[in-house]
Amino acid sequence: MRDIHTDNYCSSPRTPNARLRRRSNEIPLEISKSNGNHLLINDKYKYRSMWIRAYSSLWMLASVSLIIYMGHLYIWAMVVIIQIFMASELFNLLRRANQDKRLPKIKLLNWHFFFTAMLYVYGRILSQHLVNTVISDKFFFRLVSILIKYQMAICYFLYIAGFVWFILSLKKRYYKYQFGQYAWTHMILIVVFTQSAFTVANIFEGIFWFIFPASLIAMNDVAAYFFGFFFGKTPLIKLSPKKTWEGFIGASVATMIAAFTFANFLGRFQWLTCPRKDLSTGWLQCDPDPIFQPESIPLPALISHWLSWKEIAVLPVQWHALCMGLFASIIAPFGGFFASGFKRAFKIKDFGDSIPGHGGFTDRMDCQMVMAVFVYIYHQSFVAAQDYSVEMFLNQIMRNLHSEEQLVLYKKLGQILQERHFIQS
């Protein structure tokens, strides 16, 4: 669930170090003096807000649907772009224009740390996928093997270079601001890349594990908005004055129903359920995982007596979907509450204004961050097979061999297979 319109904050006087101009997402003085009890059901601008929000949502839905249709690699690229927007919004939160003028390279230093973290995180997550992509080309296979071997060292020295750069850039009278920026940058990296690392891991486990939880958050958000819009009368939490118990409960019920039915729909598309082992862009074909194979469940006699059919086809993943739906409707909204409290602390309405009616990209990702981590942990703990396959052993062995040794191993395995095929024939 998300805040609609402006949270109500108490205004504080500007300090000498305050920004020289008011950002577009700061809270106007007249709004900050309101009493905090204004519910959406009584908002005279609610219909205008609803149409703006709906129009933006349709554009986002169309864009994301197209990217999902294009496949895993394009979804990963979308996640990277969202990360950059989020980082930009969060970096700007503590900017001070008059101090940045005297520290012209501080923005560049922030982005240096950001892209160093990106290189490290995605290098660790996607190294094996990259190897699988170039394995047929001897030159690129050797090049990628060298890069992967020294990736951690490269990232470390890039970070050390940024660290030394920061120390050499320290200026008298600006120590506090510069160290504040340094700490704030590292906090942003933890928040942004922790979430995105799990999101990308979910994508390559199968698009289903990305699109389904993300859809649950969106459904819960929309349901909470409309239940609060038409029925909301009882405030839920002081951090978010526009959120109501009616919206929270109504959205929870709607999300659980949607989770069970939507999982059945998505689980029938094979290209959504297949894991991606490389970085190619083609559609996937694979043997369906058992949790995506329909099972017939007989209906109770009391129900089947009034219906023409005696059993229903259910995908096992639908039972997992109920757990994810429960988390999305009960726990994930606390990511939104956290963001609301965070915005109150900085006396801003939204993190940005990139998306009309919604705020910035960070405003849209507060609950998604909590959900992505949960889905990865849930998938690895309760869904992913725990058997140790030949492929798993080979991947582990390959990580510890040089490129020449890997080629020798491949040739040796090929000879063994040929000998076995000759003996059997």
What are the main properties of this structure?
single chain; 425 residues; mainly alpha; 4% strand
Walkthrough of the structure:
Helix 2 (46-70) crosses helix 3. The strands form two sheets. A two-stranded antiparallel ribbon has the order 1-2. With 425 residues, it is mainly alpha-helical. The chain is built from 17 helices and four strands. The chain is 66% helix and 4% strand. It starts with 28 loop residues before the first helix and ends with a helix. The chain is flat.
Please state the CA-atom Rg, rounded to the nearest Å. Answer: 26 Å
Major beta sheet, strand line-up? 1-2
Question: What structural class is derived from the secondary structure elements?
Answer: mainly alpha
Write the H/E string, N to C. HHHHHHHHHEEHHEHEHHHHH
**Overall mean pLDDT score?**
84
**N-to-C CA distance:** 64 Å
- What is the number of strand segments? 4
* Poorly predicted residue ranges: 1-24, 27-37
Largest sheet: 2 strands, antiparallel
Overall helicity: 55-70%
Overall 3D form: flat
Beta-strand fraction estimate:
under 5%
- Put simply, the count of helices is 17
